[in-house]
Design brief:
Blueprint lengths: L4 E5 L2 E5 L13 H19 L3 E6 L9 E3 L12 E6 L2 E7 L3 H9 L2 E6 L9 E2 L2 E2 L8 E11 L5 H17 L5 E4 L5 E11 H18 L4 E2 L11 E4 L9 E2 L4 E2 L5 E2 L5 H5 L11 H11 L21
Parallel strand pairs: 13-14
Antiparallel strand pairs: 1-2, 3-4, 3-6, 3-7, 5-6, 7-15, 8-9, 10-12, 10-14, 11-12, 16-17
Helix pairs in contact: 1-2, 1-6
Protein name: DNA ligase D polymerase domain-containing protein
Organism: Tessaracoccus aquimaris
Length: about 325
């Protein structure tokens, strides 16, 4: 049964369908996904502003095939804002999710996951085919991402130790790190910085990863070889490339049950144990927002954000 309804979100008319269709084996429905994104919008939208959104869509649920979608889909409403980005494969017309109605529309398309780059449109140069990703006119990133990807045998307590060590090194360089879960197994640190050429941020992130691996070889690894990651945390610095993206704070993940990429306090990171489950349901996330507010509110880059240091040697 296609339970299609027409509703309004902040004055925008939306046609929604299949609201009772389960998107997760746990029974979580598309209607619940839409409702979550509408409710979390006030906290999530500041982190999406000006960022090209790559979506992971699960049209038949998370137990079936998914696909990454970059171009705005055919038939997108005229009110959906987009951003052209020049790539080696041609111009890509990304969606900009900057209002509650767009989040609801994307969720109605079963776009469970939302991923974004570290730069915003306001800090990008535009050529004939869109935002220029390489060369002197490359985007200026406003965040540095330290993605701590746990290999086999790494526990949440190990990830917490890694996050604290990485944040301590960053603090010694005058940079403040904000932690979140990836929504699955790992932790990620986001660091607000003054707008900086993406290639320079990537170089710094690579040097940071290598410095951590050199100082703590029994905990970190900076190489991408999956075979070498057992018992180690891979510091995935490639997510700082202008063409790459990272799961956005408050995005749902397409797992067996809905789990949200969740900002944490450092006290919560320090309290992680080997048995801690690094998953937060949408309902739990909304309850956290009521208790803590947006823990990442200060993570948004401002004119006072620090300059990125030179790469570590």
């Amino acid at each position: 049964m296609n339970d299609r309804i027409t509703t309004e979100v902040d004055g925008v008319s939306l046609s929604l369908s299949n609201l009772h269709k389960p998107l997760f084996p746990s029974g979580f429905t598309k209607g619940e996904l839409i409702s979550y994104y509408v409710e979390v919008a006030d906290a999530m939208l500041p982190h999406l502003r000006g960022r090209a959104v790559t979506r992971v869509r699960f049209p038949n649920g998370t137990s079936a095939q998914s696909f990454f979608e970059k171009n705005a889909p055919a038939g997108a409403p005229e009110w959906v804002r987009t951003l052209d980005v020049a790539t080696s494969a041609g111009s890509v017309n990304y969606v900009l999710a900057e209002d509650r109605a767009t989040l609801a529309w994307l969720a109605n398309l079963a776009a469970v996951e939302l991923h974004t780059p570290q730069w915003r449109a306001e800090h990008a140069n535009v050529g004939p085919d869109g935002v220029i990703l390489e060369g002197e006119d490359e985007p200026r990133s406003t965040t540095l991402i330290v993605d701590l990807d746990p290999g086999p045998g790494i526990t949440p307590a190990d990830s917490a130790k890694g996050a604290i060590l990485a944040a301590t090194l960053l603090a010694q360089l005058g940079l403040e790190a904000f932690p979140k879960t990836s929504g699955n197994k790992g932790l990620q640190l986001s660091v607000p910085i003054a707008p900086t050429p993406a290639s320079r941020v990537f170089a710094f992130a690579g040097s940071l990863a290598k410095a951590l691996a050199a100082a703590h070889p029994k905990l970190f690894i900076a190489t991408m070889s999956k075979e070498a990651r057992s018992g180690l945390i891979f510091v995935d610095y490639a997510q700082n490339l202008a063409a790459r993206n990272t799961v956005t704070a408050y995005s749902v993940r397409g797992l067996d049950e809905p789990s949200v990429a969740t900002p944490l306090t450092w006290d919560e990171v320090g309290a992680l144990t080997p048995e801690t489950r690094l998953r937060t349901s949408p309902a739990e996330l909304l309850e956290r927002l009521g208790r803590y507010g947006d823990l990442w509110a200060a993570q948004v880059s401002t004119p006072d954000s620090p300059a990125l240091p030179d790469p570590l040697t």
